[in-house]
């Protein structure tokens, strides 16, 4: 082998594995959108309860910041008593809808899935019962 043929082999020996690794990496990267993944799952907005539907949403998305009397904005979503106040005064629905005039919630995160928002709205429209 002459020295020019070695120079031609080195780039191929380095570039080919890099291209293979890059193709595997690009194929494995994607972003899941909940509504696209579960398109056929119906959104149940009938018989929405605080304990089974709304409180789990608050635990996953809200109570880190909104717990107790010292909760951010004076809002306590860890209890029914606190949650019912913001449900009945309109702040809850306005915030999760990211409506004008309200602080969008969850703060610094994407808007909640449409089904979750519809369930919150259904609970509020039913009078925000403690059930």
UniProtKB/TrEMBL annotation:
Superkingdom, taxonomy of origin: Bacteria
UniProt domain Cytochrome c: residue ranges: 49-128
Keyword Cytoplasm tagged: no
Matching InterPro entries: Cyt_c-like_dom, Cyt_c-like_dom_sf
First and last residue of the signal peptide: 1-28
Example GO molecular function: metal ion binding
Database matches in SUPFAM superfamilies: Cytochrome c (SSF46626)
Keywords on record: Heme, Iron, Metal-binding, Signal
Protein name as catalogued: Cytochrome c
Organism: Pontibacter fetidus
């Amino acid at each position: 082998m002459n020295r020019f043929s070695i120079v031609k082999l080195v780039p191929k020996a380095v570039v080919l594995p890099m291209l293979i690794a890059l193709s595997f990496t690009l194929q494995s990267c994607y972003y899941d959108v909940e509504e696209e993944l579960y398109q056929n799952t119906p959104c149940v907005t009938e018989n929405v309860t605080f304990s089974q539907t709304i409180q789990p949403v608050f635990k996953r998305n809200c109570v880190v910041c909104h717990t107790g009397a010292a909760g951010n904005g004076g809002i306590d979503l860890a209890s029914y008593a606190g949650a019912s106040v913001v449900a009945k005064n309109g702040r809850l629905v306005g915030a999760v809808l990211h409506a004008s005039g309200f602080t969008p919630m969850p703060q610094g995160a994407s808007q909640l899935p449409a089904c979750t928002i519809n369930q919150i709205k259904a609970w509020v429209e039913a009078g925000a019962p403690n059930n």
